Structure formats: structure tokens, C-alpha cells
Amino acid sequence: MASIIKLKGGLGNQMFQYAFGRALMHKLHKKQNCAVLFDYSWFNEMDKLGKDGERKNGITIRHYALDIFNLDINFADNEALKNLSAKKYLKFPKFLRKNFPFLKYFNTYLNEDNPFKYEEKLLNIKGGHYFEGYFQNEKYFKNCADIIKKDFTFKPLENEHNKNILEKIQNTKNSVFIHIRRGDYLDIRNMALGIKYYKNAIQKIKEKIKNPVFFIFAKDSDEFIKENFNFETDFELIKSKGADYIDMQLMAQCKHAIIANSSFSWWAAWLIENKDKIIIAPSPWLDDNDDIICDNWIKIKR
Question: pLDDT tens across 259-282, in order?
């Protein structure tokens, strides 16, 4: 018997989905005949639509990205998908699940109602299920955090330019990464963060850390930085070379972080090894929801 986790979205989303599946494996590791598989099919559809990062029909196209890690990941074959997807359509309508939350757990197809809300019962359900969602909450995998961090070990950098950036960050005592995400967020209501959040977050870091050094990571946000980051603070704008994930790898080597409302920088901050790290996150993360923000992180109003 197996359970299947659907993979979809960008790298950060895929990492949350993998972490949920890994936590499920950890929970079931003593039980026989229980396997956790991952559904790759969403990316087959994305491959037909266009290039990674493009917006089409209200969707940002993303491709499979977990191969940047050395993961022992098992994908569901067509037979496994058919066995569970045949039962997917027994799913209770959302209005029923909203009024009677317990009903959703009677289905073999389980779709989270809120991508940030922790549902402990999802990790305790018996039998084979098909899980679809984002599972963006640390509580799902907090009990196996060491396993997740080991799984999300980046491969060594090869490019000399990136190696030099890494060395500079590692040799900086109080390094702080600032992540700015604009791009596709400008086309999504209430997603792009304004300069007010970053100014207040930088001030909070200065109150808590002596002589912080800020490294800005911001793909396609040069104009925003040029127009807004003109206050009395020294920054270094980082331009890594190669795949986008290199930025996450470099950010995770900083001591502290100011993140965007992005799962990409969320993971970079979570992977920082500094036990005294200070992480600043925007609040609300999305609309009125902050559940994705870890309990020991500092919230700054956006």
C-alpha cells in the first residue's frame, strides 16, 4: 500500500511537498507495506506550456527542480496513480468540508483547504491516500528537521564567481541576506512587498546585531533597488551565475535573514545553521495569514 504526494509549483513549493512526504515516511517507517511516492505529472503539463518563470493563463510555469539535491525519491508509476486517482472523485465538495471538517479525512484524495494551516491528522491517516497541497508549515516536519536538512544538502559550487561570493559571505561575521521578489509577484494581487517593509526590517536587524553586513538577492528587481534602497545603509547586490537555486544556496550561508513572502527565501532562512539566527518575515504573509512563519521568527508589518 502507498500514499502519493503531488509535486507542483516552484522549487520552494516542491521542497515543502517533499518535506511533508518525508515526514510521512518518518511517521510510517516502522509499518510494513507502507510507501510514500511522489507524483511528477504536473511538470509534464508545464513542459508543454513554456519556459520556467513565464506567466500563462494566470499560472507561473515551473519545472521539476528537486534534482538539485541528492534525494532518494520514488515516483509513482501509472498503475499507482490510476489506483488512487480512480477514487479521487469521491472527494467531498469544499463547502461540505468547510462545514464538516472531519469529512475530508474519509476520502482517499486529500486536498488541504489552507496551504499554511497545520493539519496534524494528515500525518496520522491510515491506508493509501493521494495528497495534494503545499503543506507550507514547519510543524509538519519539525520532528524530523535533521533529516530534512540533510536531504536538502546542496551540491558543491563549481563556478568560480559563485565560489568567491560564497567565500565572502562565509568570512563575514554578521552577514544578513535580503531577498526581494518582484517579477511575477507584480501580476498577483497583494504579493509584491513595498520598501516600507524592508526599511523597518533593516532597522530591526540593526537594533539586534552589531555591524550587520547586508547582501541583497533580487532577480529582476534592479530598478526597484535603485529607486528605493538609497538610505544610509551599505548593501552589496549579489549577482550569482547559473541556475536560480544558486541564490538559495548562497543565502543559506548567511548568519541572518530578511525574507520576502516567498517559499524560496523561507527555505534559505530555514536552512541557515546559525543557532542564534535572526529571521525577519513580512506580516501578513498573504492576506491575513501568517501560519507559514516559524514561531521564533520576527514579524514585521508589510
Answer: 999 999 999 999 999 999 999 999
